[in-house]
Amino acid sequence: MKGLGLFALIVGIVVAIVAFTMDVSVPTGYGGRVNNIGLMSERQNYILIGCFIILCGLLMIIFCKKKDITPTSKSDNDRGCFDTKCPFCAELIKPEAIKCKHCGSDLEEAHSSCENRFDLSSIVLFDGKRNILNNDLVKDYAKYLFSITDDKSHFMSENKERIEQAASVIPDELKGLFKAKIDYWASEFSTTER
Question: pTM score, two decimals?
Fold first, then answer.
């Protein structure tokens, strides 16, 4: 849409420039030139049309939103993992695939080993003053844990060992916050599941 707005802006500018340079005078029988009211009116119309096209183009450029691109490949992000390719052959996988068309691997087996592919090394970020948690990564990890938990009402106790293992890479001052955020996201996911 921004491309169309840019095109309209350029066309509007060209029309306005042509209108401003348009000759509205006609020769007289006495060797002079006089302004023609009809040509002046035509020039005025072209100037207004050009300005309107410029305005439309500017509005399209300013207020145009980026299109949301929906992924066409199956990303393990849907299951809480960060790989976007088959874990066995590294080829892209379609969203509805349960078996990789390239290597024939069963993707449900990959799902069971999904937790091992979480890269939690970037879970702690430094904002220039202090360490903070990468909230998106915490949310994705909680989503994964929630998806593999059988008894959602005992989420934290059922995943205690996994959460402790993940917390081992986190500085001590952030471990409590990490566990609280995992618990928060699990409760959010259980609310939306109902």
Answer: 0.41
